[in-house]
Every structure is written in C-alpha cells, then in structure tokens.
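Protein Record: Sequence and Backbone Structure Tokens
======================================================

Structure line: whole-number tokens from a learned vocabulary of local backbone shapes, matched to residues.

Purpose: to set a sequence beside its fold so the mapping can be learned.

___
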Amino acid sequence: QVHLVESGGGLVQAGGSLRLSCAASGLTFSSYTMGWFRQAPGKEREFVATITWSGSGTYYPDSVKGRFTISRDNVKNTVNLQMDSLKPDDTAVYYCAARRGVLSTVVHDYNYWGQGTQVTVSC
C-alpha cells in the first residue's frame, strides 16, 4: 500500500520561508515522477512543482518560479519543497503526489496523493 506523508507546513509571515517534506513508502520511489500541488479554499487544486525520477529535471509554473525549489532523495524516499519569499497568495493546503511517467502538471495524471499540509502566509 502506497503512503505519501507531508510535513513542514505552518504559519509564516510574508517574505519568510518554509520547507515541506514528503515521505513515501510502498512504492519503488526512484521510478516515480513526483509533484507538489496546492489547493486554496474555494479554488481548484493547482500545480506547484514537479521533478523527474532521477532528480535531473524540474518544472515550475510562473507563479512560483524563482521562489520554490523541488528536490528529492532517492535513498531516503523523500521529496522536498523549499519555499522562499512567501506571499499571502501562497496560502493553501499543499499536497505531494506520485506518478509513473514523464513530468506532468496535470492533477489527474498522478496516481498517488498525500493527505496534505497547511501553509498559511500572513501579511
């Protein structure tokens, strides 16, 4: 059974930083593309970052490019999201997700999801 467990969320002031982690189990982690998504109240889940199975390739939307960095450790079976220069608009529940295949920004392309961790950015 696949489990993805996020941690590291919390309350931070605008301009601050947070580092999210996602621990994976029950799958061959190094074979999966990993992604981070977020969902704010009343909004659809949106793509935040993705990384190839090897870690050699990443992709971000313009809204977070230059502020967020995704990384992975295939020995520890973890994927991380370093978030810097946070803005109030970054407030959301953040989810990690896994898929077999190439990088994707599409929610429905991902097979496994964590339960999410809340990130709140105050003014």
Notes: The longest strand covers residues 18-25.
